[in-house]
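Check out one such.
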Amino acid sequence: MASSSSIAVREIPLFPLPEVVLFPGRPLPLHIFEFRYRIMMNTILDSDRRFGVLMWDPVQGQPAAVGCCAEIIHFQRLPDDRMKVLTLGQQRFRVLEYVREKPYRIGLVEWIEDQPPETDLKAMAREVEQLLRDVVHLSAKLTEQKIELPEDLPDLPIELSYWVASNLYGVASEQQTLLEMQDTAARLRREAEILTSTRNHLAARTVLKDAFN
């Protein structure tokens, strides 16, 4: 197991979600309807508005061991005590043990961080950003839709790595692997591999499309 940069250990409520991996700095809207999680949200709103999001692992039949803390930044109460909440990812954590299971899980967690990089990662981040722009350009051309990256795309390597990871769709297990990494360079390298494969696939489809038009 990779060593963690633990800055604190604390108990937090935990919210397992299938096919959902939250990353630091990324938004996550939620519709809360299940009774136990309505209780959880009402309790959280009376405290620091923070809880842990864990991807539910269908293979293991349990939540992943590493997740991301979410902070409620806006909420709306609906009929029947249902709730819409908008959360923002904060620190990552590793579950050390479960303190309580009912009515909802509470875990003892340690915060984890990426290890300080040994080299400057700006060039690697620029490579990943260019691959991302290539993918978006080819996707727009292939679908004949206007697709653009946000103007405030992160430029710091670690923040960019979280942004890219959070925007990979349909690959929750891959996202979980990226979340668990504590090496920014390794995360960026893996994202470069994924984006290169995607770019090559889209480029081939674009050539075929142009050939038949």
Helices lie at 35-45, 122-143, 157-166, 172-180, 184-211. DSSP finds five helices and seven strands in the chain.
